[in-house]
Design brief:
Structural class: mainly alpha
Radius of gyration: 27 Å
Number of strands: 2
Order of helices and strands: HHHHHHHHHHHHHHEE
Distance between the termini: 40 Å
Largest sheet: 2 strands, antiparallel
C-alpha cells in the first residue's frame, strides 16, 4: 500500500498547528517545563563524568551524586560571588544617587543651553514620565515575589537532574519503543546527536563565558572603573544570550559606570571595551568554540531567542539555542521535514547549495520546457527562458 501524500499547503497547516500546540503547552506549563529543561541540560553536561565513574565500578547512585554535587557547588560558588558583588553595589546606593544627581543637574544645564528648554519644563517632562513608569510598578513588584519561585526551582533542579540520570536508560528505551521498530534507527540517531550537540554546546558556552569574563575584567581594570569584577562577570553571563545579551550588558554597564564615576570618558571606555569584546567574540571565540557545535544560522538564532524570550522570559532565551539544535537534528531525520532542517542550518555555500544546483541542472536536462515562461504576444515578441542557477 502506497503512503498517502498530502498537498504542501495541508502539510504546512499540520506543521504550524503542531508548533502552535507546542508553544501553547510551553506557555501554560512553563513553571514545570523550564526547570525540567534546565535539568536535562545539566544532566547531559555531567553525563560523561557519570559514565566514567560507572566504568570505574562505582555504584549508580554514587556515580551520579558526585558529579551532581560538584556541579551544584560550582553553581553555588558563582551565585555567592555575584551576591557579594551585588551586595557591595547596593551598599554604595547613597553615593550612586548623589553622583547621579550631579550628572542630572549637568545634563539639565546642557539641555537648557543647547535646546533652550527651561529646567522647569524638563522637570515637568520627567515627572510625567515617572508617573507613567509608576503605573507599571505592579509588574516590577511581582518580579520580587518570584524570589520564592527561584528558590523552589533551585531545590527542584538537582532532584530532577538526579532522577533523569538515574532513569536515563528507561527513558531512552521508552523513546525507542514508542515510535516503533521501523523508526528505531532514526530515533536512536536523534538521541545521540542531540546529546552530543547539547554537551558540546554547553561546554563551549562555559569556555566562552570564562574567556569573555577574563577579557572584560582585564579591560575594566585597565581603565580603573568601580565594580570591575561584577560588571565583567555580569556582562559575560548576559553574553550567553546570543546577539541580544551583550547589547543589554553594554547599556547596563555604561549606566552603572555613569553613576559611579566622575569622568564621562570612563563611560565611553566601558562601551568601547564591550563593543571590542563583542567583535572578538562574534568573529573569533564564538565561531571556534560554540557555533561549530550547533550549526544554526544567525537569522534563526535571533528569531529563536526573541520567541524564547516571549514564551518563557530569560529562561526561554537561554534554552532557545539548544532547543533549536535538537529540532534541527529531528527535522533532518524525519521524512518531509528535511527542508525545515535545512532552513535552520548555516550551510549557504556548501553541500546544500551544490545539491540544489545539481537538482536544477537535472530538471533542466530532463524537461527544458518546464523552465519556459510564456509571455503574451502583446507584451513581448518572443518567450524568455528561466535558466537554472549557475
Amino acid at each position: 500500500m502506497e503512503p498517502i501524500r498530502l498537498p504542501f499547503y495541508l502539510k504546512l497547516t499540520v506543521i504550524l498547528f503542531m508548533l502552535g500546540l507546542i508553544i501553547l503547552l510551553i506557555i501554560l506549563g512553563q513553571e514545570i517545563l523550564v526547570p525540567i529543561c534546565f535539568s536535562i541540560l545539566l544532566a547531559m553536561l555531567i553525563l560523561p563524568a557519570v559514565n566514567y565513574l560507572q566504568r570505574k565500578k562505582c555504584g549508580g547512585v554514587i556515580s551520579i551524586a558526585i558529579p551532581l554535587l560538584l556541579s551544584i557547588i560550582g553553581i553555588s560558588a558563582v551565585v555567592y560571588f555575584l551576591s557579594n558583588q551585588i551586595g557591595d553595589f547596593l551598599d554604595d546606593i547613597p553615593t550612586i544617587k548623589k553622583q547621579l544627581s550631579e550628572h542630572y543637574i549637568t545634563l539639565q544645564k546642557w539641555v537648557r543651553t543647547n535646546f533652550n528648554v527651561s529646567i522647569r519644563d524638563q522637570n515637568k517632562f520627567v515627572t510625567k514620565a515617572t508617573e507613567k513608569m509608576g503605573e507599571s510598578g505592579m509588574a516590577l513588584g511581582q518580579t520580587f515575589f518570584s524570589a520564592t519561585k527561584i528558590l523552589f526551582v533551585a531545590f527542584l533542579l538537582p532532584v530532577y537532574t538526579f532522577l533523569i540520570l538515574y532513569y536515563r536508560v528507561m527513558i531512552k528505551n521508552f523513546l525507542l519503543h514508542v515510535f516503533g521498530k521501523e523508526y528505531e534507527t532514526k530515533v536512536y540517531g536523534v538521541l545521540q546527536e542531540s546529546k552530543s550537540i547539547v554537551q558540546q554546546y554547553m561546554v563551549g558556552l562555559m569556555i566562552e563565558l570564562a574567556i569573555v569574563a577574563a577579557i572584560n575584567m582585564a579591560g575594566f581594570f585597565m581603565i580603573g572603573i568601580k565594580y570591575a569584577i561584577f560588571l565583567a562577570v555580569f556582562a559575560a553571563i548576559l553574553n550567553m544570550i546570543p546577539y541580544i545579551g551583550m547589547i543589554i550588558a553594554t547599556v547596563f554597564c555604561m549606566a552603572v559606570t555613569l553613576t559611579s564615576s566622575h569622568f564621562l570618558a570612563d563611560v565611553l571606555w566601558v562601551g568601547g571595551i564591550l563593543v571590542l569584546v563583542q567583535f572578538i567574540d562574534n568573529n573569533i571565540i564564538m565561531p571556534k568554540v560554540v557555533s561549530n557545535k550547533v550549526k544554526i544560522n544567525a537569522l534563526i538564532s535571533i528569531i529563536g531567542v526573541l520567541i524564547g524570550g516571549t514564551i518563557a522570559g530569560v529562561s526561554g532565551m537561554f534554552l532557545s539555542i539548544p532547543g533549536i539544535a535538537i529540532l534541527k537534528a529531528i527535522f533532518e531525520r524525519v521524512e518531509g521535514l528535511e527542508p525545515w532542517g535545512m532552513l535552520l542550518g548555516d550551510d549557504i555555500t556548501g553541500t546544500n547549495q551544490q545539491s540544489l544546483r545539481a537538482r536544477w541542472m537535472q530538471l533542466w536536462k530532463k524537461d527544458p520546457a518546464a523552465f519556459t515562461l510564456e509571455i503574451p504576444e502583446d507584451n513581448a515578441a518572443d518567450n524568455s527562458s528561466i535558466a537554472p542557477p549557475r
